[in-house]
Amino acid sequence: MRLSCGPTISSSSGVAGHKSSRKVRRHSELCFQRAFPRSVSEYRAAIDELAEFTADVPDSGIAGAPVFYRFSFDVASWLARKVPGAVSIDWSELHDTEPLDDLLRCVLQPSEDEYFDSGYASTREWIDVARSGTRGTDFDWLMAQLQDRRFASFYRQLYDAADLPLAWALGESPYSRTRNVFSSTEMHIRSDGMRGRPLHAKKEIARPVENVSRLSAHRGSELLDVAVASLAARHRETYHFSFANPEEVYVADVGKGIEIAVFGLLPEHRFPLECTLGYLILSNGVPIGYGGSSVLFKQVNTGINIFDEYRRSEAAYLWVQVMRVYHSLVGCTRYVANPYQLGSGNREALRSGAFWFYYRLGYRPVDPVVRRLALDEQSKMRRKPDHRSDLRTLARLSACDMHLTLPTAKQSEFFDEAWLATSSGLATRALAEVAGRTRNTAANKVARLVAKQTGIRSLQSWTPNERRGLIACSPFVAAVNPAAWSIQEKRHIRRLLRAKGGKRELDYARLLATSDCFLQALREACIREDKSL
């Protein structure tokens, strides 16, 4: 018997007409007024109108409109938890079901194998029959089968390989762009307008942020939902939010209703050497921008993304405040922007002139040729104020990293990101040298060796996550032979190794920023390794 697959939304509902375009523009205006109100009356009017606002404009993220996207397993899991009944498989866009069949075979009971492989029923028909005794959509049924945490990594790989198209009926969802707000206790008026780029950006970055707090796990979870939804409604997702730790959410108040929330990662999803801390920018509780960062010793690789409807606000000021928050939290003295952020392979950034956005704040290209080109372009702008770099020139300008360095930064503390791969190669050699039969055996041997070399006498009081962190990070330490370090240096590295799997990874980031001996030893090892290749 063939059963209904629940609410299915066709992605071929047509392109929004002139009336829809007007509604989208009006929606953007109201969102901006809610985030940056010029008066109390404007704020209240925007809130009231948005409370009733809907628009049938597919993929706009506006309340009442469907969103069509191929979400990753982790965001799909979030949708299954948070909006049951609202998401279904978009069968009209699923042209090859074989990858989905591979996933389904993992959840079949032995008694079902013959019918499933017989060809008597299509994949969609089989799911309809299999879920006939349950509530919810075909998507809800599928995700319910994939919740065994023991197989999460395996299911994640197969689900992502299936590249499943989904249809999310937003309706009146609190996670639409229209409704998605983090409740704030105080509303701030912008009667004096937007703040411009700070005159002395580096001085502002170095100014301590005094009002930083860590949220409770409950409030952290609420804010994380706001962060995930702010991207999902816009066809986006990021590792920094998908695997964020609700128990490690910091909120920095930088004035006039602007808050910058920084998220640490769950212990099991942390990287072995660097520290990843994503962030969300809010204005009056409205998410207006986001970014991710890789903190590595005294530097942070990051960039900023302002949502479309807030581009005319105070992007330069906000970006300086993000860097200021990272400086206050971690103590970093160097900021790195990769070519993608500047426009390489990123047409949106290229056309917006992102290079000059970073350049005017004090970022400089690391390649001397690109730096000279930037100086030439700058000279043209001074001679002719209306001069604009063309796309070809912008593409050349975005060909290398840009750095912003604070006065306290030292070139000897710079760790080239290319050395992450070199360090990984050194880790492989360290694992090979202990001759473990399997990689897990080798990793445990290296961890025991490093524990002995650094003076870790017992792991009895260490949590499972702390032991996992020790195993993950030890190959890098083993590669630089810590046995010859001083007592003080060994004490520091012991704290660092334990912090990698600690409750809050910010503790690890702070210790990594002050691990001068480890930094120099790993730098030198990478330089030697690169020369030998």
What do the pLDDT scores average to? 93
How many discrete structural domains?
A: 3
What is the top-level CATH class of the largest domain? Alpha Beta
Low-confidence stretches: 1-16
Helix content bin:
40-55%
Class derived from helix and strand content: alpha+beta
**DSSP summary: helix tally:** 23
Q: Give a short account of the largest sheet.
A: 6 strands, antiparallel
Task: Report the span from N to C terminus.
Answer: 64 Å
CATH topological fold name of the largest domain: Aminopeptidase
What's the CATH architecture name of the largest domain?
3-Layer(aba) Sandwich
Strand content: 5-15%
Describe the global form: globular
Q: How many strands in all?
A: 15
Radius of gyration: 26 Å
What spatial order of strands do you see in the largest sheet?
4-5-6-8-9-12
Walk me through the topology.
Blueprint: H1 18-35, H2 40-51, E1 66-69, H3 73-82, E2 87-89, H4 98-104, H5 113-118, H6 123-130, H7 138-145, H8 152-162, E3 166-169, H9 201-205, E4 212-214, H10 217-232, H11 239-242, E5 244-253, E6 258-265, E7 275-276, E8 278-283, E9 286-291, E10 293-296, E11 299-302, E12 305-306, H12 315-330, E13 334-337, H13 339-342, H14 347-351, H15 354-359, E14 364-365, H16 368-383, H17 391-397, E15 402-405, H18 418-433, H19 439-454, H20 464-478, H21 487-499, H22 505-513, H23 516-532
Parallel strand pairs: 11-13
Antiparallel strand pairs: 1-3, 2-3, 4-5, 5-6, 6-8, 7-10, 8-9, 9-12, 10-11, 13-15, 14-15
Helix pairs in contact: 1-2, 4-8, 18-20, 18-23, 19-20, 21-22
